[in-house]
Amino acid sequence: MDQKLSFLLRAGLACRCPRCGKGRLYTGFMRVVDQCSVCGLEMARHDSGDGPAVFLIFILGFTIVPAALIISLKVDWPLWLHALIWVPVIMGATLGMLRPAKGVTIALQYGYRRDSFDGEAEE
User: Fold this and answer.
1) Rounded to an integer, what distance in angstroms lies between the CA atom of residue 101 and that of residue 87?
2) In this structure, are residues 25 and 107 in contact, taking their beta carbons and an 8 Å threshold?
3) Model confidence over 36-77: pLDDT tens digits?
4) Strand, helix or coil at 111?
5) DSSP for 32-51?
6) What are the pLDDT digits (tens) for 100-118?
7) Please, what's the b/e burial string for 3-25 (b: 16 or more CB within 10 A of its CB; e: otherwise)?
8) Exposed (0-12), middle (13-18) or buried (19+): which is 52, by Cβ within 10 Å?
């Protein structure tokens, strides 16, 4: 993996600015800052779209659904207990992974489509 991609992935997973890796990416839970407080990168016009949510649907669907099916075959719990267990697991995993997934999407877009950030040209 090259250094540029490695830096972008680390910055995205840490929810930091994709240019400097130090400034915060979010002001609230999912609201992207208007401008990086460290390097001044303009992020107000950025839109990650539905990409992070789609990635999480595939990742969590691929991991949690088989686990739930295997457990449901091995234990004889009523359906309400499965719902009581799996709904919080799915919601927690989704909410816990949504910020880093959006951060990685923003960082990769900065790294490979810089024209959408601050009018910068590609290197």
Assistant:
1) 20
2) no
3) 999 988 887 777 888 899 999 999 999 999 999 999 999 999
4) helix
5) BPSB-TTT--B-TT---TTH
6) 999 999 999 988 887 666 5
7) eeeeebbebbebbbbbbebebeb
8) buried
